[in-house]
Amino acid sequence: MVDAKHDDDSDLETGLLRELAAAHGVGTTYWGWDGLERSVRDSTLHGILAALGVASHGAGEMQQALLESRLAPWRRVLPPVVVAREGQETHVNVHVPHGSDVSVWIEAEDGSRHAAAQRENWDEPADVDGVLTGRAVFAVPAGLPLGWHTLLADAAGTVTDCPLVVTPLRLRTTEALADRRNWGLTAQLYSVRSSRSWGIGDFADLAELAAISGQDGAGFVLVNPLHAAEPRPPVEDSPYLPTTRRFFNPLYLRVEEIPECAYLDPAGRSEVRRLADRQHPANRSAELLDRNASYAAKLAALELVFRVRRGPGRERAFTDFCADEGQGLADFALWCALAETLPPESPEWAGKASAPDTPYCAEQRTLLADRIEFHRWLQWCCDRQLEAAQRSARQSGMEIGVIHDLAVGVKQGGADAWTLAGVLARNVTVGAPPDMFNQQGQNWTQPPWHPGRLAESGYAAYRDMLRTVLRHAGGIRVDHILGLFRLWWIPAGAGPGQGTYVYYDHEALIGILALEAQRAGAVVIGEDLGVFEPWVRDYLAERGIFGTSILWFEHDAAGPIPPEKYRQQCLTSVNTHDLPPTAGYLAGEHVTLRESLGLLERPVEEEHAEAAAEQEAVLALVRERGLLPAGPEGGRPDVQATVEALYAFSALAPSSLLGVALVDAVGETRTQNQPGTSTQYPNWRVPLAGPDGPALLDGLPDNPRFRSLINTVRTSLRPGTQDSETLGR
């Protein structure tokens, strides 16, 4: 009898745990990359619920938590935020004491006032904490303009409000590209150097790259995330593990392009020249990049330039920039100033410096005022140089210009984790479950948005981040856009495969993304690769969000799909930065490298055989189109010919955007990033180089490999040439 009772209690608790998880958007099962459904461990569910602030120990706690989740909406007069689509009537639940009168209206951004009409509702009143509470339904009118408005409710003289966001039904910038196609370069900016770089590619190099490719007919240049890292060396190498996603990395500043640099005194000019000259030799080296040396030199020079008095116009522009960026910039600059002296492990971060609003931090704002001003100034300089890069892109003829990349998340212990702690979840990190290429799963070590608290904040931090990134952009690529639907959460101490999916309000997150992009006149590209629910791509397409197609991954049960069946609303490319450049991929470097790092779960011979078979299946389609001629004496064609044939093949797709990897254009073979590794491989430190050594921007226009591949792409996209047997030769 005791054992039976124990089993009954255990079954009750398991059932309650899974019901509670589902009530809070936590997946209790998931489908793996192999098509098998897996059940999530109880320990994982307990850990995730704890991170959400939900008690789940014992049947009594879980029953109470379930009751709280049901009552939560009834305890609010209005929801925390309402996100609507333009042209559609949106119904909002309003809760007041049963029988009370209530009126609801909207105050729009432009100051206009709009009434919300009440609709029929047959929900029974509910007892909420001893008060009989009724639910009324009001309709947000369909004719409201796009934007950030305020919804208000007056119940018995007490007025309550919440943000109301009206988002595009469909992103209109996408429609502008529907009847034409653009090709563009994809590049890791830090690796793209000129003779004037300080050992690392920078914003001036971005402007030059945009001008070079724009003059060749490119419509865009897509670069890695340019988010800020640590305020001083040592700095994180990965652009996908920043300290903040809202602000930019001063490592990319070209010191000499800051106007005040010209007004340094002779000693200052001499010192800046000396610092630059020490970094210039690194530009011509194919050895690994040294961000720390470059940044240390730049900071020393930037300190000198910062001291130069700005003219009235420049001073006003700086003041306006700081005002526009507001408290977010002030808090970020404070974190930078503190992080210059407080090591990450310093106890102050968990104590008196645990948040921007502590008494200690209030005192430090005064004591560190000069350093705070310096870090705000660095962001202004980044803003000015990014504006110049986008201007260079558009003046060169680009239709879109610079496309920025938005990382999935931020580093633990970084600026966003500090300033935005209220809307981030603790004791969990995000990553990815095991898949074909990363068979042990991935832990990206980043804290996720807390779905509930982010909504409670009205999505302000998310909005502000998007606005900053989009300010001088023609587009934005959202890395792992699937994370706006669900993210793989991993409890602290668990392995990557011991997580589960936590679901987000994608209607709100995608809608706000579309709104801010439309206001900026930018296109949105979602990196929608990996494991996803089938309806997700259809939803993104409906909202005008571009998808991503990588040649090697486009297949169905029968094998590689013909390019004509690729999506039109898409960025199509031959490769991605998580694979070797195409020349290296053809040589099987993705298998060899993973085997050397111990990342394979089966014999390397099997991996090589499968990789070769997958490549041959694609190459067979390329040959069928007459794009890949035989090599000398009927043998295999050389690597360059194969790479160009693959790009010509990808150009047969109807996709509006065609990405040309700069590493492919110069003949690079080395992998930029190996997912699933940190220190085991020098991720994000490989400079742009080809068979003959470093490939500098100075020589790019006359680089024969670059010229040949670009000509292939241009010819392939020219109307009337896509059926030619000579295409791409």
Q: Which structural class matches the secondary elements?
A: alpha/beta
The averaged pLDDT comes out at: 94
Helix content: 25-40%
How many strand segments? Answer: 27
Oligomer: single chain
CATH class of the domain at 76-167: Mainly Beta
CA-based shape: globular
Query: What is the radius of gyration computed over CA atoms, rounded to a whole number of angstroms?
Result: 27 Å
* Number of contiguous helices: 21
Physical arrangement of strands within the biggest beta sheet: 20-17-14-13-12-25-24-21
Question: What's the CATH architecture name of the domain at 76-167?
Answer: Sandwich
> Could you describe the largest sheet, including whether it forms a barrel?
8 strands, parallel
**What is the CATH third-level topology name of the domain at 76-167?**
Immunoglobulin-like
DSSP strand content: 15-25%
- Ranges where pLDDT stays below 50 over 5 or more residues in a row are 721-729
State the CATH superfamily name of the domain at 76-167. Immunoglobulins
In angstroms, what separates the terminal alpha carbons? Answer: 80 Å
Describe the structure.
The chain is an alpha/beta fold and 729 residues long. Strands 20-17-14-13-12-25-24-21 form an eight-stranded parallel sheet. The protein has a five-stranded mixed sheet with strand order 3-11-10-5-6. The longest helix has 28 residues, at 312-339. It starts with a helix and ends in a 12-residue tail after the last helix. 45% of the residues are buried. Residues 721-729 have low confidence and may be disordered.
